[in-house]
Specification:
By secondary structure, the protein is mainly beta. The protein contains three helices and 40 strands. The strands form ten sheets. Strands 28, 29, 30, 31, 32 and 35 form a six-stranded mixed beta sheet that branches. Strands 1, 2, 38, 39 and 40 form a five-stranded antiparallel beta sheet that branches. A four-stranded antiparallel beta sheet has the order 3-4-5-6, with no helix packed on it. Strand 21 (277-285) and strand 22 (291-298) form a beta hairpin. It is globular, with a radius of gyration of 26 Å.
């Protein structure tokens, strides 16, 4: 009896030892599996501080060693000031003195001015009042707001910004600014009088202001074509305050440049040397007064997975003077080798068939950024993004958002292709963009593309097929590093956001697009941690 009891206890002890040994080995294995973090970045996480909720959060450096954040939650706006070195909060002010029904449209920086631009709806008159309010960065405070103009009628929502439900940003007014940052233009579209696109002509509002929010000119104008006849491609404002609009005329399959100043619209036809479909165009005036148009072009319609859309066959770039005279025109086609990279054999076969029809391209590619460097070289950054809606048996639906491969291209100042890369990425989520997409950072001799990746991809090679990162499920902050001269690519894990302090503390509400530049080679972003606290992450680029 005694011996049997002893053996029973001995067995329990041995099992405990085996369990402990297994856990030690498992922990050791996990430690060995941890990827080496990038030596290009030095990462520091601040001590936690009291959270400030905001459906919109924007961050600016005051140029004097501080970061100022502006957080909007409905009519409540909080301005915080934080010291960069210590990453400690030094000031906080809350404002509730906005007009009724105020809704943020954008916060822009023009030179040393930061302007908070918002609208407020007049229910009785069914008009919108548009306001501007300067933010004093040095003192981290608002100045009084200023009425800039009132619309003559209703203005529909053009897109949805950040936030959800009641606090969702409803964007009705688009803001563009000149290359010298001396002026900005507010552009909007009036609610159509008739629903028939064949007879309805858009009425667009254009208002141009200087840095001090003094109106240069403005008003509402009827467009020269019906909605069915014309697509508005892009807008910009020149240094002299003239608004320019690039329009595609469907019947003639031609491009036209509309120069708008006060109540005058001057139309110039742009001679195109190829019959292509412009998917997306960015219209920008350069420092010499030349208008530059850059974007993706397509040769035909195709659907692979997700919604029906045009492929992007390559990059189209042209320049013209302010009268619409074409000065240069260049095409940079995506090669078949690039299209087939990291794709299945089935997709490769489809691409090869489409290539014979001159329709092979990258599906759902959106232009994210177009950077002109100091020496005149150009960087094009694109990303595959689309959504898929599935109907449920009960009549409802679910929407899944996808943000996939990145395409980055360098073209030199003489319009020669230097390199072109398609970099694997897989992200999906249910909350719009959320923490997905990519943030561009320029190093001394390289370009960095930061994004949130599935933790299982941390040790995956540059061109391995990644497992999908699910938005809101932790992940590694990761960077692709592209050598500026050669285009050589490296992959750099930067930070495990599920383990900020080495004790398992997870950063929530991480948004890649909230990574902001503080000063040269220094970037920061803010995350939420449990206990109604926020923390700031500082990333110093060492290369």
């Amino acid at each position: 009896m005694y011996k049997n009891s002893f053996n029973f206890s001995e067995n329990i002890i041995m099992k405990k030892y085996k369990t402990i040994l297994f856990l030690i080995l498992l922990a050791s294995s996990a430690l060995l599996a941890q990827p080496k973090l990038s030596r290009d970045f030095k990462v520091t996480v601040s001590d936690p501080y009291k959270v400030v909720d905001g459906s919109s959060k924007e961050y600016f450096s005051d140029g004097g060693g501080h970061v100022v954040s502006i957080k909007t939650q409905g009519k409540r706006v909080t301005i915080q000031k934080m010291e960069i070195g210590s990453m400690k909060e030094v000031d906080r002010k809350e404002y509730l003195d906005f007009p009724e029904y105020a809704n943020l449209q954008n916060i822009i920086r023009l030179g040393n001015k930061v302007l908070y631009l918002f609208e407020a709806y007049n229910k009785e008159k069914k008009t919108f009042s548009f306001y501007g309010r300067e933010i004093n960065l040095k003192e981290a405070k608002f100045e009084d707001y200023k009425l800039l103009f009132v619309t003559k009628g209703d203005v529909p929502i053009s897109r949805i910004g950040e936030g959800t439900g009641f606090f969702m940003q409803r964007i009705r007014f688009d803001i563009f600014y000149s290359v010298d940052q001396s002026k900005f233009i507010v552009r909007y579209r009036r609610k159509p009088a008739k629903r028939n696109d064949a007879v309805n002509k858009d009425v667009l509002g254009f208002y141009v202001f200087d840095q001090g929010m003094n109106k240069k000119w403005g008003g509402e104008m009827e467009m020269p074509y019906t909605e069915k006849e014309m697509d508005n491609m892009d807008f910009t404002v020149s240094n002299d305050g003239t608004a320019y609009m690039l329009a595609y005329i469907r019947e003639t399959k031609s491009l036209e440049l509309l120069a708008i100043n006060n109540s005058d619209i001057k139309i110039s036809k742009i001679e195109n040397d190829r019959d292509i479909i412009l998917k997306q165009v960015w219209l920008i005036e350069d420092s010499k007064g030349v208008l530059s148009c850059s974007g993706y072009y397509a040769n035909g319609l195709i659907s692979r997975k997700g919604p029906v859309a045009y492929n992007s066959d390559g990059i189209y770039r042209f320049t013209m003077n302010t009268s619409g005279k074409l000065l240069s025109s260049n095409y940079f086609e995506f090669p078949l080798e690039l299209l087939n990279q990291n794709e299945s054999k089935r997709i490769n076969r489809i691409n090869e068939r489409q290539e014979k029809k001159e329709r092979a391209g990258i599906s759902y590619l959106q232009l994210l950024n177009f950077i002109t460097e100091k020496n005149g070289d150009m960087i094009f950054l694109g990303e595959q993004s689309y959504l898929v809606e599935k109907r449920n048996a009960n009549g409802g639906s679910t929407i899944t958002y996808y943000y996939n491969d990145i395409v980055i291209t360098k073209i030199d100042k003489d319009n020669n292709l230097v390199w072109m890369k398609k970099l694997p990425k897989a992200q999906k989520g249910k909350r719009g963009k959320g923490g997905m997409s990519v943030r561009y950072i320029r190093g001394d001799d390289a370009h960095y593309l930061l994004y949130l990746d599935n933790i299982n991809n941390a040790s995956l090679g540059v061109y391995g097929v990644p497992k999908a990162h699910v938005d809101g499920k932790g992940g590694y902050l990761t960077a692709y590093k592209i050598d500026n001269a050669t285009g050589e690519v490296e992959k750099h894990p930067i930070l495990d956001i599920t383990n900020l302090y080495g004790d398992g503390t997870e950063g929530h509400q991480f948004k890649t697009l909230r990574i902001f530049k503080v000063e040269e080679k220094l970037f920061m972003t803010e995350v939420y941690i449990k206990g109604k606290q926020d923390a700031m992450i500082k990333m110093e680029l060492l290369k």
